TrEMBL record:
It holds the Pfam family TGFb_propeptide. One of its GO terms (molecular function) is growth factor activity. Residues 1-21 form the signal peptide. Residues 240-354 form the TGF-beta family profile domain. CDD domains: TGF_beta_LEFTY1_2. It is found in: Secreted. This is Left-right determination factor. One of its GO terms (cellular component) is extracellular space. Belongs to the TGF-beta family. GO terms for biological process: anterior/posterior axis specification; BMP signaling pathway.
Length: 366
């Protein structure tokens, strides 16, 4: 019979994750396995011109995105700084509105973004306007509000990326919250330093019944086409000061990496748009923060190493990871359709020190 301490060590060994940075080959291999494909599908421009992402696919993607944000921010909510940025509606066309936020010096240096929340004030609908639409059922009185990040490229072209979506009722009024953490992450990685954060807000029908045909047009947010004032759009930025909360495990972005740098989590952005195989195949997201574990670990005393002879030197590895939701194009029977997939272990949540993958008890952590 195996000793209890050896069984425990081998069990922990099986749970530990790899320490090396995520590679393009690993990402592609995970996506192919998840879709049970042997090679990247061939998708041309004609396939994509007719492709429309249905509302239920967008909603499924947003649910997974919110779950991912919740996992990443868990445990950090009670040790964070809070900043509020006022925004304004730059332009409106039909049911689509463009929001702009000046972001210069809004995120303090040496900080970690925990969560970004967009708050829009939904104005009450006048009774006369409701009366003109007749009697609306709870379902037909709903509209879907979608928030997308708008990136303006250097060549003048632009691309939108789905960030959050929720249902609102025309009978309601008050503040509505949207999780736009991913949009701020994109802005940090891909925008020029002084470029503002642009968010596109669209209001669409949720149901196609005749009674609901124009009900979504009743949804309006404060400050649309009006001077800034009470109820203007707000962007809440929740951050951690890494000088005070370095125990969260993120590397100091201002400190150079040296041989003596202790084990920490370093930012690493994966640009999917820059990968040739992802073109026309990966619809969302345009990229993501994967992070990687870097630095050195304190080694155990020789006496302890003698009692655990099968364990090698302690290394900095990913001890907690999170999945990455995606919307991809699938071709079946000559028809192209969008599909939501979730790739496991794509984002590093936490780095720890381990001996060849076996987590070392907390008292030995550096």
């Amino acid at each position: 019979m195996w000793p209890l301490w050896l069984c425990w060590a081998l069990w922990v060994l099986s749970l530990a994750g790899p320490g090396a940075a995520l590679t393009e080959e690993q990402l592609l291999g995970s996506l192919l396995r998840q879709l049970q494909l042997s090679e990247v599908p061939v998708l041309n421009r004609a396939d994509m011109e007719k492709l429309v992402i249905p509302a239920h696919v967008r909603a499924q993607y947003v649910v997974l995105l919110r779950r991912s944000h919740g996992d990443r921010s868990r445990g950090k909510r009670f040790s964070q700084s809070f900043r509020e940025v006022a925004g304004r509606f730059l332009a409106s066309e039909a049911s689509t509105h463009l929001l702009v936020f000046g972001m210069e010096q809004r995120l303090p240096p040496n900080s970690e973004l925990v969560q970004a929340v967009l708050r829009l004030f939904q104005e009450p609908v006048p009774k006369a306007a409701l009366h003109r639409h007749g009697r609306l059922s709870p379902r037909s009185a709903q509209a879907r509000v979608t928030v997308e990040w708008l990136r303006v490229r250097d060549d003048g072209s632009n691309r939108t990326s789905l960030i959050d979506s929720r249902l609102v009722s025309v009978h309601e009024s008050g503040w509505k919250a949207f999780d736009v953490t991913e949009a701020v992450n994109f802005w940090q990685q891909l925008s020029r330093p002084r470029q503002p954060l642009l968010l596109q807000v669209s209001v669409q029908r949720e149901h196609l019944s005749p009674l609901a045909s124009g009900a979504h047009k009743l949804v309006r947010f404060a400050s649309q086409g009006a001077p800034a004032g009470l109820g203007e759009p707000q962007l809440e930025l929740h951050t951690l000061d890494l000088r005070d909360y370095g125990a969260q495990g993120d590397c100091d972005p201002e400190a150079p990496m040296t041989e003596g740098t202790r084990c920490c989590r370093q930012e690493m952005y994966i640009d999917l748009q820059g990968m040739k195989w992802a073109k026309n195949w990966v619809l969302e997201p345009p990229g993501f923060l994967a992070y990687e574990c870097v630095g050195t670990c304190q080694q155990p005393p020789e006496a302890l190493a003698f009692n655990w002879p099968f364990l090698g030197p302690r290394q900095c590895i990913a001890s907690e990871t999170a999945s990455l939701p995606m919307i991809v194009s699938i071709k079946e029977g000559g028809r192209t359709r969008p599909q939501v997939v979730s790739l496991p272990n794509m984002r590093v949540q936490k780095c720890s020190c381990a001996s060849d993958g076996a987590l070392v008890p907390r008292r030995l952590q550096p």
